[in-house]
Write a structure and sequence with these properties.
The complex is a heterodimer of chains A (331) and B (263). By secondary structure, chain A is α/β, with parallel strands linked by helices. Chain A is built from 12 helices and 13 strands. The model of chain A has no long low-confidence stretch (mean pLDDT 87). Chain A has helices spanning 21-30, 63-70, 92-96, 115-125, 130-144, 159-170, 189-206, 217-223, 241-248, 264-270, 293-303, 316-326, and strands at residues 2-17, 33-48, 52-57, 78-83, 99-103, 177-181, 209-213, 226-231, 234-240, 252-258, 274-277, 283-288, 306-313. Chain A has a 6-stranded mixed sheet, with helices on both faces. Chain A has a 4-stranded antiparallel sheet with strand order 11-12-10-13, with helices on one face. Chain B has one domain. Chain B has 263 residues and is mostly helical. Chain B has a two-stranded antiparallel ribbon. Classes of the chains: A alpha/beta (331), B mainly alpha (263). The interface between A and B is medium-sized, with 30 and 24 residues. Chain B: It comes from Anoxybacillus ayderensis. Chain B: InterPro entries: ABC-2_transporter-like (IPR010390).
Chain lengths: 331, 263
Amino acid sequence: MYAIEVEKLRKEFKSYSSRSGLAGAFRDLFTRNYKIIRAVDDISFTVKQGEMVGYIGENGAGKSTTIKMLTGILTPTSGRVVVNGMNPHKERERFVQTIGVVFGQRSQLWWDIAVQESFRLLKKVYRVSDQDYNEHMDHVIETLDIGPLLDKPVRKLSLGQRMRCELAAALIHNPPLLFLDEPTIGLDVLVKLKIRQFLKEINEKYNTTILLTTHDMTDIEALCERVIMLDEGKIIYDGSLQRLKQNWGEGKQIHFQFRDIVPKEELMLLVDATWEQGEDRYSWIAHVRATDMAHVIGKVVSSYELKDIHIREVSTEEIIRNIYEEGIHHG
Amino acid sequence: MGKYIEMIRMRFLMMLAYRTNYYSGIFIYSINIGAYYFLWSAIYGGQPSIQGMTVEQMTTYVAIAWMARAFYFNNIDREIAMEIREGKVAIELIRPYNYLIMKTMQGLGEGIFRLLFFSLPGMIIVTFVFSLQFTTNVHTWGYFALSTMLSFIINSQLNLIAGMVTFFTLNGEGLLRAKRFVIDLFSGLILPISFYPEWAQHIMHYLPFQAISYIPSMIFTESFTGDAVIKGMMFQAVWCVVLIVPIYVLWKAAKRKLIIQGG
């Protein structure tokens, strides 16, 4: 059984534009110009129970709109959505019992009172038994290290502390499906690591399905084997992160730091590779295929005196950037 | 049901966190009651009764009306308007509860807080200063409690309606302010309904406002007795039911607008 099934999902918004000037404003009173914007354009995908999927795309690519349709906040213009075997907005109260949602930009905890009071309310709201709560939440609280924060009002917590509490709050009813909308936005590295480790753990322990949107590619690398990439409302890539890297980031970058200034033409003659100027006039970067690496290094080392050399793989960040700049079909 | 009771407790805690804001409130209410006390004493002059109410009944009416207001009054209309504007309602939709009932429960939590930390101490202060006439009839207290509960429900329902209407209008603030003024005036808080001219009384009989303040206060001062008590409470109960209809319709429409537009 699939946790999420989406077929030809589409969402259109009316976008109003105002005419210029006073006369224009007056005309706007009667008829307004609008365009229909397709935020999500006939996308189809399925997610299996227990999968961790990265849902990525630039701002405005349609990520949040999709998440809102999957959680039942928005109704699709057309298409079919089945999440946890239910239609999200038709059976709202029963459906929301089976999902957990964290919006990185929006708090779900009660601002003025202690965190534990929010937990207590949510426990009642989701009708979690004392036994289940203690068994499950003791572990969550310990792993996320939020025990000392529970009696503090939310407004006194730092962003990292608050985010960990938000995550715990979304898991009170131990949902089989978790939506995370930019959960690590603005967090420092240590908190990010802690949150990632925690997500991995609950995924292993409870086989929780996780759909994650983020702008931080290191999140995706750490957590998701599969990525779905969105551009202008369409899915442009759906598959393993590994394959994406192979197709797009096959090459290596070799950074050479020379003792003397070397002109580009000489290097071009020496080895057939793409050369790029480094930080200063002494350094050059060669973009080569992995198989050519030894050959290129050998040639350069035997011809010039070098101060330093290092090899770098193309980062996922760069791969994604390249894809958005050049389109998916280039590679 | 547990979740709704938990929400009452939650709001109570929230109010407690900001309790210092309320000490000044007690003072303001006491001044209000004092001003009306002297005003009515002056109006009565030497007359034993006006419109069937003695001066003691009148002053007690004013005091109890203000104290009951502390219980039924809440700001959920403003909160709803704000939560709609800021898109927080979207988050409420991913919770397995009814948003409007939750809002009402928050209002109740607020009401209970004000009753304990505001009305009761305020009432004690007021009885020391002015000569008020509190009944010792247990039945009257019982009817009054029930009637005040009904006025809480009606006032909250009107707040829900006002809050949701701001969803469809651009300027919510003016509307909410107008609503508050209309309720204070037509509910009988400032002037008992029996003091209004015939024709106005007639119109108000078709409006829900007197169910909020006039009826419970008349019951408390024993200006209503026997059948009048039952008739008054029936009037309240009917409005409680009738108001569910516009709430339901508005919520449907608001939800549709929300799920088309997004949060």
